[in-house]
Amino acid sequence: MTIVFDPRQLVHAPARELHNGDWTAYNECPARAEAIRAAFGPTVAASDFGIAPLERVHDADYLAFLQVAHRDWIAAERSGDAIGYTWPIVRRRTLDLTRIDARLGRYSYDAATPIAAGTWEGAYWSAQTALTALDQLAAGATRRAFALCRPPGHHAGRDYLGGYCYLNNAAIVAAEARQRGLGPVAILDVDYHHGNGTQDIFYDDGEMLFVSIHADPATDYPFYWGHADETGDGAGRGTTRNLPLPRGTGWTAYEPALEAALEAIAAYGARLLVLSFGADLYAGDPISHFAFAREDFAKLGARIAATGLPIVTVMEGGYATAELGQNVAAIAAELLR
Ligand code: Q9C
Ligand code: ZN
After folding, report:
1. What is the residue with the minimal CA distance to atom 10 of ligand 1?
2. Is the distance from the beta carbon of residue 22 to the nearest atom of ligand 1 less than 6 Å?
3. Residue of 18, 23, 169, 193 to test ligand 1 pocket, by largest number of atoms within 8 Å of CB
4. CA–CA separation, 66 and 297 (whole Å)
5. Does ligand 1 lie within 6 Å of residue 19's CB atom?
6. Helix, strand, or coil here: 186?
7. Which of 67, 168, 275, 292 has the most crowded Cβ, counting Cβ within 10 A?
């Protein structure tokens, strides 16, 4: 039973986000991680595995951008958090972009994900937290490890941030596990929102199964990805599976989708499971619309644990901060059993 948490993640603290046309307090706040940690006993701090495992999933120019973006924002005589306002969606081509605003647009897809002074440091240690959880498992210390990651990762792609995510922790861990010969690896994403970044990273990769259960993108963020007909491309045809569900879904309607997801994972012959877990399935989540009760998190954990697979769980979303600790503890108790 291993829970990894690193306090260096807390230095990432954007002040506000653009939400439905207004500036509101940033939902993905450091208090989330502190609330979850408070619900657990002792935790293991992250080890430093360096930047090489990050480079397996993210482009070098994107990683370089993340490290200097806030500094360049301040150098451009701005204050507060860096955020883009223009995006290159028409006839995109490779340009040598120098202006910070141009680069913010180039390396992001939404305006809900600012880069603050501590963003690189926080995201770096979030990724190292996930890698440490895997390492504990690889070393044989445990078959089930829980990475208390923050910021989350599943919306971040090879060269873009979005959805409160900068480095794709689940993808980094899955790629590292495969590299270490622990595969075949499957990623199961049960965050309320579709894990578009993870899907995109492995979309034409036949050696990685990505299965996601999430709110229907017809009604919910991230809108453009996560539809049932997205199943992978090229060598990856058939190794992406999307199971969108309507707003209002509770455990009864969720369970059949979970069975289908686990069936796909078994059929693929997975020997290691990376679980992208979001507690935003909760009925009381302020920005989400499923209907999970506390005990449904235990059911979810127990069913996934019953696969018998080694599991690295990576924390994604979940914004009902006051209930977050108990909700995460409910699933973790089952997953770590
Ligand atoms: N007006 C995760 O749960 N903002 N990210 C939606 C709605 C983005 C959620 C704004 C939500 C991203 C990891
Ligand atoms: Zn989410």
Report:
1. 19
2. no
3. 193
4. 34
5. yes
6. strand
7. 168
Q: What is the ipTM of this complex?
A: 0.96
Residue-by-residue DSSP string for 24-79: EE-SS-HHHHHHHHHTSS--BPPP---SHHHHTTS-HHHHHHHHHHHHHHHHTT--
- Residue corresponding to tokens 């990273």: 201
Closest atom of ligand 1 to CA, residue 221: 6
Count of beta carbons in the 10 Å neighbourhood of residue 117:
18
Q: What is the 3-state composition of the chain as percent helix, strand, coil, each rounded to the nearest 5? A: 40, 15, 45
Does any ligand 1 atom lie closer than 6 A to the CB of residue 221?
yes
| Ligand 1 pocket, mutate which of 285, 287, 289 (most atoms under 8 A from CB) | 287
Alpha helices for 56-154 (secondary structure H): 60-75, 100-106, 119-138
How do the domains of the chain map onto residue ranges? 2-60+125-335
Residues with catalytic function: 155
CATH 3.10.180.10 fits 2-60+125-335, yes or no: no
Nearest CA to ligand 1 atom 6: 221
Ligand 1 in contact with 193 (CB < 6 A)?
yes
Q: What are phi and psi of 273, to 5 degrees?
A: -115, 125
Q: Output the CA torsion 26→10→157→108 (10° steps).
A: 40
Any ligand 1 atom below 6 A from CB of 315:
no
The Cα 216–Cα 289 span in angstroms is: 11
Over its length of 337 residues, how does the chain's per-residue pLDDT go in tens digits? 699 999 999 999 999 999 999 999 999 999 999 999 999 999 999 999 999 999 999 999 999 999 999 999 999 999 999 999 999 999 889 999 999 999 999 999 999 999 999 999 999 999 999 999 999 999 998 999 999 999 999 999 999 999 999 999 999 999 999 999 999 999 999 999 999 999 999 999 999 999 999 999 999 999 999 999 999 999 999 999 999 999 999 999 999 999 999 999 999 999 999 999 999 999 999 999 999 999 999 999 999 999 999 999 999 999 999 999 999 999 999 999 8
